[in-house]
Amino acid sequence: MTPPSNVHATAIVVGTTGLLFVGPSGAGKSAVALHCIEEARGRGLFAALVSDDQVLIHAAGGRLVARAPSSIAGLAEVRGAGIVNVATIEAAVLSRAIRPLAPPFAERLPPEGETVEVVASVFLPLTRLPLFPGCTAFSTLAALHPEILES
To answer: Do 19 and 137 form a contact (C-beta atoms < 8 A)?
Structure first.
């Protein structure tokens, strides 16, 4: 088995759906992921952090599995406020990558069938998640992917 790749991202699970929040530093990956966890729980769904900032990812049986490095397991950074403890799950099979986007938006529509390379030659479908004032990130995510509410 090949060693896992350490990817700069945040991984969570909602229901049985593993989500990998990707983007450059400061894009809001951690904040949006933590918000999604809390709002999903508020709707009665299981939701937990897998890992924040660094995600160990390995391919297993044609799937990508995410885990936390032991040194940061159970921790998340709230930018400007510090490190917090968060309920976690040990591992998750990743279903989709999520890229938070702040306005203004460069494009009205994303390219059809957009993917992101997570580790060498292994891709996940990518959802661009626009962050609209007055609308929660999880509500927008659920509108784009209603199956998350059923997992």
So the answer is: no
